[in-house]
Amino acid sequence: MINVGIIGSGGYAAGELIRCLLQHPEVEIDFLYSQSQAGKKLFTVHEDLFTHPHITFTDTINYEVDVAFLCLGHEHAKPFLKAHHFAANTKIIDLSSDFRLNDNSHDFMYGLVELNKSVIPQAQYLANPGCFATAIQLGLLPLAKHNLLKKDVHVHAITGSTGAGQGFSTTSHFSWRNNNISIYKAFEHQHLQEISQSVHTLQKGFDQKINFIPVRGDFTRGIFATLYTESSLSEEELNSIFKEYYADATFTFITNETLSLKQVVNTNNCLIQVQKVEGKVLITSAIDNLLKGAAGQAIQNMNLMHGLPEKMGLQFKANYY
């Protein structure tokens, strides 16, 4: 069994992580660390988990666990690891943005499975990708592999309210979010850096702009992204490139049909449609931001790091209606 600890256990992504790990046949949860919730029962925060009344949040850490998931806020993981030292053989998977960029200041590997699947099994420290970054990269990587990103890329992506985390803000209140949409961080979203980094890994000379407009949606979970750029290839050629790239992908699928967000919500899947429209390639990419965009992908990485099937603990029954 894999002994697991979760640092920062009260948020949305941590809740999804706990739900998945509780039904993972090869995992035992050792501790759920939370300074703000220490001493409280798990179900008082994640209320659907009332069937596990024996599990309690703690402010004590077992530094000898096999895997530590860091579900802390952005810019909190680095100082946490400076103050807390795990055993030499503990694998660490960070769900924040602290270690995603390759700046030679850390030993974390970037954990986008569809990019780094061959080397993730050897990783000890892993940076889980961002949710927007996951949806957008999966729409771009097949083109980058064939050096086909010759012009600027334009991205419009809408995300559910859980993407903003559990903390309260003006734009997270139900009365503001309901029946409402808005853009934020236009052209300067923090995920742009990791997207460009991954694209450049496959297309070395990539220096075009990725023009990204993030949108707050009036729904709870999911990301629906549309991307387009110029292309001289036919729709058949483009689809062939995408199907070849994802031929061995466990959770990423190409469809010829018009897709919808509900097809992927409550799953670890990414669904992609590729179309050719008047000299442009139009790519639609949809994921669940809390699963494929966070907790599900983290478990997918953990499975690879332990030689387990990628799907283990990630087989869901989606509720379409």
Automatic annotation (TrEMBL):
Domain of life per record: Bacteria
EC assignment: 1.2.1.38
Record Pfam families: Semialdhyde_dh, Semialdhyde_dhC_1
Main subcellular localisation: cytoplasm
Keywords, ordered alphabetically: Amino-acid biosynthesis, Arginine biosynthesis, Cytoplasm, NADP, Oxidoreductase
GO biological process terms, semicolon-separated: L-arginine biosynthetic process
Pathway: Amino-acid biosynthesis; L-arginine biosynthesis; N(2)-acetyl-L-ornithine from L-glutamate: step 3/4
Subcellular location: Cytoplasm
PANTHER family in the cross-refs: N-ACETYL-GAMMA-GLUTAMYL-PHOSPHATE REDUCTASE, CHLOROPLASTIC-RELATED, N-ACETYL-GAMMA-GLUTAMYL-PHOSPHATE REDUCTASE, CHLOROPLASTIC-RELATED-RELATED
NCBIfam families: argC (TIGR01850)
Protein name: N-acetyl-gamma-glutamyl-phosphate reductase
Species name: Marivirga atlantica
Highest classification ranks of the organism: Bacteria, Pseudomonadati, Bacteroidota, Cytophagia, Cytophagales
Gene name for this UniProt entry: argC
